[in-house]
Amino acid sequence: MGKGLRLILIIIVIISIVFLTVFIGREFLSKTDVILSVETNKDNYRVGELVEIKVSLKEGRIIFRGTPIAIIFWGRPLNGRDIAIQLLGPGGVTLYVDQGKTDKNGETIFRIRISDTWKTGTYIIHAVTPGKHITKTFKVEKS
Question: Are 141 and 44 in contact (CB under 8 A)?
């Protein structure tokens, strides 16, 4: 990529950020906020496999919040905070409920083995901490 093209791309990015800030953004260089995230070790599972659910809680600085995007710089992990999860199977049946505290990395991990009584379909994880709620889905497929 030539220097001229690179300069044009940089100018476009700067103009885009200014546009988003002025016309779409609600807050720029916002205060810190608690960011809750949840991830699984896989997106699709089979009977007998272990689902690892990692819930993270960090304090981050949101430098731009608009509709529908937000730009976040991650901050420090939040240690010793309460986290609860609920796992719903197809049809909304609760299969698992647990709670834990975040470690020094702001994380807690829940492990659930998929039994042969689980149905195929989409499962929903609800992760909550005071003032925050997030969901994540995964699928269970036939063996």
Answer: yes
Residue 37 sits at the vertex; the CA angle it makes with 79 and 19, to the nearest 5 degrees, is 115
20-52: buried (b, 16+ CB within 10 Å) or exposed (e) per residue? bbeeebeeeebeebbbbbbebeeeebeeeeebe
Per-residue DSSP letters for 100-141?
Answer: EE--TTSEEEEEEEPPTTPPSEEEEEEEEETTEEEEEEEEE-
The C-alpha atoms of residue 31 and residue 90 are separated, in whole angstroms, by 39
Q: Judge if pTM exceeds 0.85.
A: no
Instruction: DSSP for 50-99, please give it.
Output: EEEEEEEEEEEEEEEE-SS-EEEE---B-TT-EEEEEEE-TTS-EEEEEE
Q: What is the mean pLDDT of each run of 10 residues along the chain (143 residues)?
A: 77 72 52 86 96 93 60 77 96 95 97 94 97 96 86
Q: How many residues does the chain have?
A: 143
- DSSP SS3 for 35: strand
Residue 68, preceding bond cis, omega within 30 degrees?
A: yes
